[in-house]
Design goal:
Blueprint: H1 4-9, H2 13-24, E1 29-33, E2 37-38, H3 78-82, H4 84-92, E3 95-98, E4 105-110, H5 113-122, E5 127-130, E6 135-140, E7 146-150, E8 153-156, E9 162-163, E10 173-174, H6 177-185, H7 213-228, H8 234-249, H9 257-269, H10 274-288
Parallel strand pairs: 6-10
Antiparallel strand pairs: 1-2, 1-3, 3-9, 4-6, 4-8, 5-6, 7-8
Helix pairs in contact: 7-8, 7-9, 8-10
């Protein structure tokens, strides 16, 4: 902000200016590369070797200043946005995205005219933003995200990002029960399995071995590495890895949003879109009956 002339000359100046404006309004933002996907891990954070994701409400030990962890890297800090670590990112960026849940918002993403017609019949009016194929309906309040809750309808809030396409028109209204019910009726892509009570036992008897932090962390680290090292058939690798993690850790109550977020971040760093990640997770849960 202290070097407006430099910002105007920079290749990513229009996007950076938009990001700074949003950040000033306490909306966490991040740049997107071509294909509307986040930038991947830097070498120091590869395979989540840093041990966590920055800018979370419950951050891990990662102190990287680069944009390394997808939606979790969204920030309102102007020093980060304009700092040297992000300078080249803005030169390569194609769009600005924001973390709706971090701003206390929920976006109902309507992909086509039939979805828009359904929303007008079934959802209360709120602020709307035109997209390439449809509309974003933005509500006040955060909730769990889910994709494909019905044909052409995604819900983006926590652990998700949405492209910034302008302020839109209309007045924000609170997230209605009809939107929350979409996630309940569909298959939430990232369903948190509540941690088991200390001392709980598996069906076969004995203490849950996953309560040893190192055991579970090692399993997640290996899964992240498997995804990161995939050289082809990335989507199939992501699905198989999700299936393996859920098979080993999905029934005893040890997986948390933080663990699932690490897996999603690794998949998105390989170019998987949020929808593909969500679908792979939901399909793996369905196959295992979770």
């Amino acid at each position: 902000m202290t070097q407006p002339a430099t910002i105007r000359r920079a290749p990513g100046a229009p996007l950076l200016a938009t990001a700074l404006d949003l950040a000033a309004r306490t909306i966490p933002v991040l740049p997107l590369r071509a294909g509307k996907v986040p930038f991947g891990n830097c070498p120091a954070c590869r395979d989540n070797a840093c041990g966590g994701r920055p800018n979370m409400r419950t951050p891990g030990p990662c102190h990287c200043t680069r944009i390394c962890h997808g939606w979790a890297a969204a920030t309102t800090d102007p020093a980060t946005l304009t700092g040297p670590a992000w300078a080249r990112v803005w030169e390569q960026a194609h769009a600005v995205a924001y973390h709706p849940g971090g701003a206390g918002l929920t976006v109902v993403d309507l992909d086509h005219t039939d979805a828009i017609a359904w929303a007008r019949r079934c959802l209360p009016a709120t602020r709307t933003v035109a997209t390439t194929r449809g509309e974003h309906w933005i509500y006040q309040g955060a909730m769990q995200s889910a994709n494909a809750v019905r044909d052409g309808v995604d819900v983006k809030s926590t652990m998700a990002y949405a492209r910034w396409l302008g302020p839109g028109t209309g007045t924000l209204t609170a997230v209605p029960d009809s939107v929350r019910a979409l996630v309940v009726k569909g298959q939430p892509p990232v369903r948190t399995v509540q941690p088991a009570a200390r001392g709980s036992a598996l069906a076969g008897g004995g203490p849950c071995r996953h309560r040893t932090p190192a055991y579970l962390d090692r399993g997640i680290t290996m899964a992240v590495q498997q995804i990161t090292e995939a050289s082809s058939t990335v989507h199939a690798t992501v699905y198989r890895t999700f299936l393996a993690v859920l098979s080993a850790h999905g029934r005893c109550g040890c997986l948390t949003d933080a663990h699932v977020g690490r897996l999603f971040a690794a998949a998105q760093a390989k170019g998987e879109g949020p929808r593909h990640c969500n679908d792979a997770w939901a399909n793996a849960r369905t196959r295992l009956g979770l």
